[in-house]
Each structure stands twice: as C-alpha cells, then as structure tokens.
Amino acid sequence: MFPMVTGFINYGQQTVRAARYIGQGFLITLSHANRLPVTIQYPYEKLITSERFRGRIHFEFDKCIACEVCVRVCPIDLPVVDWKLETNIRKKTIA
C-alpha cells in the first residue's frame, strides 16, 4: 500500500481508540455521579453507631481533668466521672 493510505488507517485507528477511552472515562464519571454522598457534616450530623459497636475511648487516668468529654462522646453512655470541686485551688479533682 501507499504510505499515505497506511497513515490514514493508522490515524483512524488512533482516533477510534481515543474515542473509546474518552467514552470509558465518561461512563465511569456517570456511574460515580449516581452514588449517594458518603461524607457527613460532623457537628450537625452524627454518625449512628450500631448497638454492637465495640470501639473504646482512649482514657489516661493520670491526665484526666474531669472535663467529661468521654461521657459526652461515648455512644452507650458508659463512663461515669465522679469529681469534686476544690474551691481553694479552683480545680476539679477526681473523687
């Protein structure tokens, strides 16, 4: 064949291959567009944990300042912090 004809055939094959790749990328984009969002807006929406959730809160008794954050974040309201207010030093202490 003539070199010009083989160049056109090669160009046509490359064009078809490029169109196929663009079509595949477009189909992937469309499949992702139909999915529900995974992100939750944390302060406004809370993630609902299952009843069998076995995660645990990291707690160091020596560093505890009785702020009761662990009580607020625990999904099953497990920890109880007993503290008393020392008025002379204006500090909470663990009872």
UniProtKB/TrEMBL annotation:
Keyword Translocase carried by entry: yes
Family matches, as Pfam families: Fer4 (PF00037)
Record protein name field: 4Fe-4S ferredoxin-type domain-containing protein
PANTHER family from the UniProt entry: NAD(P)H-QUINONE OXIDOREDUCTASE SUBUNIT I, CHLOROPLASTIC (PTHR47275)
Molecular function via GO: NADH dehydrogenase (ubiquinone) activity
Entry-linked Gene3D superfamilies: 3.30.70.3270
Keywords assigned by UniProt, alphabetized: Repeat, Translocase
Organism for this UniProt entry: Saponaria officinalis (Common soapwort)
The UniProt record lists the keyword Translocase: yes
Residues covered by the 4Fe-4S ferredoxin-type domain: 55-84
